[in-house]
Write a structure and sequence with these properties.
about 200 residues; mainly alpha; Four Helix Bundle (Hemerythrin (Met), subunit A)
Length: about 200
Amino acid sequence: MATRPTSAREYQEHFRNRLIESRLTPNAISLTGFLLCVVAAVLIYKEWWIPGGVAFIVGSVCDTMDGRYSRMSGKGSPFGAFLDSTLDRIEEGVVLAAVAIYFSRQGNDLAVGATVLAVLASLMVSYTRARAEALGVECKVGIADRAVRVVILSAGLVFGDLLNLIAPAVYVLAALSVFTVFQRIFHVRRELTREVPAV
């Protein structure tokens, strides 16, 4: 007869084991996160900021869970990793597209431009890492990785209506993402041009 967990750590282990034994797959978590971010985009389009921000946060949490669950459960696959990375890019883009529509309605061309720049730069942050790793260079450097970008955008969405933070959040997001792209470019250049020590 199995003993019941008594401590917090035992409960955590018990939950983890039950989760691994379930039919839940990393791809299901990835798709759930994607659907939540699409819902977030629709809510933002309707200017329901707090529900939209919450949906984006929960969807982004799913994005952080799928990779960890994949490693923990052994259910991961090369296609799952590809799907995860692809959906991450789409999720960020679709939410920012809804934000750009809002700025367009307000006649705020500067904020629209900053939103487009934020989308492009966030894609380039991911692309520079993928391209660098294809060349054999680890490239996790930079101030605005996905987690940082999610925090900035989430804060802007949740407090955007109350404190009018959505535009400042997008400006910060665009600036830090562009800066991160240059950080990664210079990092890869330094790594590829580093002299090989004499044998």
